[in-house]
Amino acid sequence: MGGCEQHRRHSGQGSLWAAVGVACLLTLVVQVSDGRAQEGFREQIIPILGVIYEEEPVGTVTHLILSMNVREDDRGLAVHFKNRPGRFSHMAQTAIQQAIYRSARALGQSPNSWTVVLSLPYQGVTIYGDSLSAMVGLSVVALANGKFVLPGRVITGTVTPDGHIGTVSAVPLKIVAASEAHMQRILVPEEQDVTDADWKTPFLVQISPVRSVRQAYEALTAMQQVR
After folding, report:
1. Distance in angstroms (rounded) separating the CA atoms of residues 46 and 31
2. What would the DSSP string read from start to end of 115-132?
3. What pTM value is reported for the model?
4. Where are the domains of the chain?
5. Each residue of 82-114: pLDDT tens digit?
6. What is the CATH number of domain 6-221?
7. How many CB atoms lie within 10 A of CB 34?
8. Model confidence over 150-209: pLDDT tens digits?
């Protein structure tokens, strides 16, 4: 059973932290567009849903810088995690690597020529848990096929060995955070975590329970076929 990400911050106020994060992302958008375009890398800033654990758990939307290159060799998947400004816990790293492998296999892809680089552009933040892994795995496959996850779409969940979207906790908190961040479509595991209460669908937000990797991929990319 998948746990939720824990985005732990060391600044005092959530609004300040969010403002710094937005400013950082605006700078990184320019760097991604200008600095990598000539190197043959495929890149996207992707949203992930998580929970900040302080006095009370609060849902949050943060972003990752995802870069990848489809190499000419077949030496195997290479995944690199930058350790600044923010960090990925060992559990998060393992879950992400598994999700890339499993998503690729479920979609008939081979990741053996992929190099993936992940960066968390928030100073002093560490991502714990595994519920970001489906979002990362599916985004990597999309980039490998020259596609992108569409704006305003996000998934929380893991990827199971048999190609399904695994259960995660704190889904109601994440839905609230995604709605406040003006996400239009939120994908959640079809099977609900036993610790989660029922949730109400926010206004103007589409909640899509998904079971399979392929179903999730098509919902995120709006594509019916994978090359």
Report:
1. 15
2. EEEEE--STT-EEESSTT
3. 0.83
4. 6-221
5. 999 999 999 999 999 999 999 999 999 999 999
6. 3.30.230.10
7. 9
8. 999 999 999 999 999 999 999 999 999 999 999 999 999 988 765 666 766 666 789 999
